[in-house]
Amino acid sequence: MEDCRPLNSDNRLKHRPLTPIRFFGGLICLLVFLSTAFMFLVYFGPIIAIILRLFSVHYCRKATSFLFGLWLALWPFLFEKINRTKMVFSGDVIPANERVLLIANHRTEVDWMYLWDLALRKGCLGYIKYILKSSLMKLPVFGWGFHILEFISVERNWEIDEPVLRQMLSTFKNPKDPLWLAIFPEGTDFTEQKCKRSKKFAAEVGLPVLNNVLLPKTRGFCVCLETLRNSLDAVYDVSIAYKHACPSFMDNVFGVDPSEVHIHVRRIPVKEIPASEREAAAWLMDVFKLKDQLLTNFKAQGQFPDQGPEEELSSLKCLVNFIVVISLTILFTYLTFFASIWYKIYVGLACASLASVTYFGIRPRPVIGIFKAMSYCKKTKK
């Protein structure tokens, strides 16, 4: 039912053939996504993520969530309405607007994008954040977006990553800020070769031998849970599976795969998860044992249990969102190329500022907070 073996692109059977219409449609989609992303970033990014943040992190995040949530919603629109990929949800019915830590298996390079389909249905699309490898922050345009959306970059070296992770997580403690922090504890996407190495290591050290997932790395999960526990409502254990084949990014763009994406969610109240690091690590290992069994059953049965708690996306809402994003992009394009020279100067300065804050990892602190800290230091010295 699900085949994630690494196959060559010339002999891999696609769910839909790559016709000339799909090819040119995919190129148009890429052009739309790149142009809309660029215009939203240069016209909204500096104002929201730099200027507004100097006054309030909370309202900066509210504005970022709303405006860039409009752009992010283009992806579920592409998946479900244009490519006709069927999204099948199962498991617990989860409430809207919770603050959660989301742990998911990592089947392929685009798993994280399908979490947007779930977040959109819960009104939390703009609040979802990922822990990702630092090389992705270097992507042109998209790296700027990852920075503005406050994704956490890691080097995959725990000595370097731990202090960075703790510092970034400490900024997400405000319970008034909705948060979906998504992590992939396996640390990399699943392949047969990685699975063999994982099973060999597990057998050597006496850990569970898993067939459909890799052994989870527990330290990052434990730090996230420890830092945010008091402000979280729950942990969502998400299992992702694909019918026919695991898609690549370009499969999504051209609409050739996947035919169905199945997402199973278990909601665990945070108070039910052990507090100690050792017990929390053991708890995560048990979660992945259950996840492995769920995926085994999916291969045999073609579905997860307790299917169908989420509704279809509204075609009308998706279309209205698309029109709004395209209209703003057309307006910004006109201003950039056909209006006053000052717009060209602004775009140039915006690009320079976005590139700088992303490269140096700059996130301004509110001016009021700085003054309070200075005042506090003066009082303590007295």
Describe this entry's structure for a reader.
The protein is of the alpha/beta class and 382 residues long. Helix content is 53%, strand content 12%. α5 links the parallel β3 (128-133) and β4. It is globular. Keywords: Acyltransferase, Transferase. It comes from Melia azedarach (Chinaberry tree). This is Phospholipid/glycerol acyltransferase.
Task: Give the uncertain stretches in residue-range form.
Answer: 5-11
Element pattern in H and E: HHHEEHEHEHEHHEHEHHHH
Query: In percent, how helical is the residue content?
Result: 40-55%
In what order do the strands lie side by side in the largest sheet?
A: 1-7-6-2-5-3-4
Q: Main sheet?
A: 7 strands, mixed
Radius of gyration: 22 Å
Q: Care to count the β-strands?
A: 7
Class derived from helix and strand content: alpha/beta
Strand residue content: 5-15%
Q: Report, as a whole number of angstroms, the end-to-end distance.
A: 70 Å
SS element count, helices: 13
Shape: globular
Q: Round the mean pLDDT to the nearest integer and report it.
A: 91
Observed structural traits:
seven-stranded mixed beta sheet, 53% helix, Phospholipid/glycerol acyltransferase, transferase, acyltransferase
Quick overview:
By secondary structure, the chain is of the alpha/beta class. It has 13 helices and 7 strands.
Map the helices and strands.
Blueprint: H1 20-51, H2 57-72, H3 74-82, E1 86-91, E2 100-104, H4 111-121, E3 128-133, H5 142-148, E4 152-154, H6 158-170, E5 180-183, H7 192-205, H8 218-228, E6 234-243, H9 249-254, E7 260-269, H10 277-301, H11 315-338, H12 341-360, H13 367-381
Parallel strand pairs: 1-7, 2-5, 2-6, 3-4, 3-5
Antiparallel strand pairs: 6-7
Helix pairs in contact: 1-2, 1-5, 1-11, 1-12, 5-12, 6-8, 8-10
